[in-house]
């Protein structure tokens, strides 16, 4: 038996109480890194100990072995417990003995047909789902299946109580996903590929990594094999040991890459869809987001992959480098979110609560007055929301026509230049640099930077600065 942490025990008690009160189907909500599988193992163990049959349904086959290991450690009696991938369970329904309890991992998928047919086949079983994000893209709420949501501690709480590492989130956008179309609930894959699969983008991603995360064990999430391979190649050109993995990579090769990463021989693992939902990935210190997504679930799973604590490094700070603006759609990993079982149409749109530091690209909560990374101060009267990003977005890096800042014809070009170049000493140009150059080149600066300009420029410079 693996002992439960106090908040895990509390969640188990709350689930028991709900089922004791006659609930037939409940969904437990626990943030990534909250130790979901230990809780599931604990519940399965006490069910089998009482002679009740358990069916555990997982979303991916890679998870079966992993969960079987955890369940064994938790003392689950496997003569009464079946662990299976959803498609496999579906095919073998007729041969599967009737369970008393069905556990559903990644329960935000539960409205898909394969899950529904399992539930319909065993109408007498109690259904207990687990997820960090109880919603499904563009579809009905989970209320169609679950009678009650039982929420556990938040991601913020897990960080504050040292169950997760704190993080720094940088949003240097190398591509603008806002014009992409939607297909099956997420961005059109072909359009994403056309947007992302550019040498200049791979190169800039590596530059940013060298600046912000050099040497850190890093997982890069890409949208296509071409992008992932291109990014890995760009890392290798800089002498960084990087490898690419996708669903078609032979098992043995995958294993070798992951083992190499665990031992620190491979520094960067670029992948497509492999490390999304729980695939047993080694811990890492940094994630690089190169796949624009409309899925909050995917965003949270990917960005939080770096946040597991490391007993050998109690001061670990996870790094998240977002090159596709996912934060502009979904906010930060530990934003407080209100969940409900209702369908999306009925829910109020939740307001994003982040803004970006114009000096260092850090993404911080809107309420923050001073950037915790570079000490940039937002003036109270400045009302900056995520729209600020538009000015500093690195649009179409590949087509950037100029190489010297003096050729910049607008503030936007100047900011683009600043974000894609480095000073001779290898350091980044600060926001103040753009303001100085705007004065010299006579370029107009957006009105909302007026208070920043007052602070950052000499008085004679400020008087020469034009605003638009
Ligand atoms: Zn900053």
Task: Give a short overview.
Helices cover 34% and strands 14% of the residues. The protein has helices at residues 6-20, 36-49, 62-74, 86-91, 113-121, 155-160, 189-196, 199-212, 225-237, 251-262, 296-303, 326-330, 389-392, 411-420, 431-441, 450-456, 459-464; strands at 25-29, 54-58, 81-85, 101-104, 126-131, 148-151, 167-170, 182-183, 186-187, 218-222, 242-245, 268-272, 286-289, 318-322, 354-356, 363-365.
**Tally of domains:** 3
Please give the share of residues in helix.
25-40%
CATH-defined superfamily of the largest domain: P-loop containing nucleotide triphosphate hydrolases
Question: Radius of gyration, Cα only, in angstroms?
Answer: 24 Å
Describe the largest sheet: 6 strands, parallel
**Annotated CATH architecture of the largest domain:** 3-Layer(aba) Sandwich
Structural class by sheet pairing and helices: alpha/beta
Instruction: Report the total helices.
Output: 17
Please state how the strands of the largest beta sheet are arranged side by side.
3-2-4-5-1-6
Oligomer: single chain
Distance between the termini: 66 Å
Question: Which molecules are bound in this entry?
Answer: zinc ion
Shape: elongated
**CATH top level assignment of the largest domain:** Alpha Beta
Strand content: 5-15%
- Mean pLDDT, to the nearest integer, reads 85
Number of strands: 16
Low-confidence stretches: 381-402
- CATH topology of the largest domain, by name, is Rossmann fold
């Amino acid at each position: 038996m693996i002992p439960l942490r106090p908040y895990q025990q509390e969640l188990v008690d709350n689930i028991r109480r709900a089922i004791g009160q006659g609930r037939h189907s409940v969904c437990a909500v626990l943030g990534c890194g909250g130790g979901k599988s230990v809780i599931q193992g604990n519940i399965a163990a006490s069910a089998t100990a009482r002679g009740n049959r358990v069916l555990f349904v997982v979303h991916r086959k890679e998870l079966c072995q992993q969960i079987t290991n955890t369940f064994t450690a938790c003392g689950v009696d496997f003569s009464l417990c079946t662990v299976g991938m959803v498609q496999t369970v579906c095919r073998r329904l007729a041969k599967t003995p009737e369970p008393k309890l069905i556990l559903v991992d990644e329960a935000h998928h539960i409205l898909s047909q394969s899950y529904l047919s399992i539930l319909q086949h065993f109408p007498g079983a109690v259904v207990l789902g687990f997820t960090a994000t109880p919603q499904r893209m563009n579809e009905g709420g989970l209320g169609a299946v679950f009678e009650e949501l039982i929420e556990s501690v938040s991601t913020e709480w897990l960080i504050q109580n040292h169950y997760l590492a704190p993080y720094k989130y940088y949003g240097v956008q190398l591509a603008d996903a806002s014009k992409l179309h939607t297909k099956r609930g997420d961005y059109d894959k072909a359009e994403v590929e056309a947007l992302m699969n550019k040498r200049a983008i791979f190169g800039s991603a590596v530059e940013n990594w060298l600046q912000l995360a050099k040497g850190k064990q890093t997982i890069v999430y890409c949208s296509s094999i071409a992008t992932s391979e291109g990014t890995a190649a760009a890392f290798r050109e800089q002498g960084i040991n990087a490898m690419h993995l996708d669903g078609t990579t032979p098992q043995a090769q995958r294993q070798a890459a992951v083992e190499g990463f665990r031992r620190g021989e491979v520094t960067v693992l670029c992948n497509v869809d492999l490390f999304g939902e729980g695939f047993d990935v080694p811990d890492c210190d940094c994630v690089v987001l190169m796949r624009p997504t409309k899925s909050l679930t995917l965003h949270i799973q990917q960005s939080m992959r770096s946040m597991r604590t490391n007993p050998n490094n109690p001061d670990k700070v996870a790094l998240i480098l977002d090159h596709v603006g996912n934060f502009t759609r979904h906010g930060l990993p530990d934003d407080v979110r209100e969940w409900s079982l209702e369908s999306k149409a009925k829910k109020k749109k939740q307001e994003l609560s982040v803004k970006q530091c114009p000096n260092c690209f850090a993404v911080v909560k809107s309420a923050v007055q001073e950037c915790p990374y570079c000490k940039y101060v937002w003036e109270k009267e400045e009302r900056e929301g995520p729209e600020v990003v538009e000015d500093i977005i690195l649009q179409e890096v590949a087509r950037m026509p100029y190489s010297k800042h003096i050729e910049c014809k607008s503030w936007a070009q100047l900011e683009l230049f600043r974000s894609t170049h480095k000073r001779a000493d290898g350091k980044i140009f600060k926001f103040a640099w753009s303001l100085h150059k705007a004065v010299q080149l006579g370029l107009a600066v957006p009105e909302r930077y007026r208070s920043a300009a007052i602070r950052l420029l000499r008085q004679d410079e400020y008087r020469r600065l034009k605003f638009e």
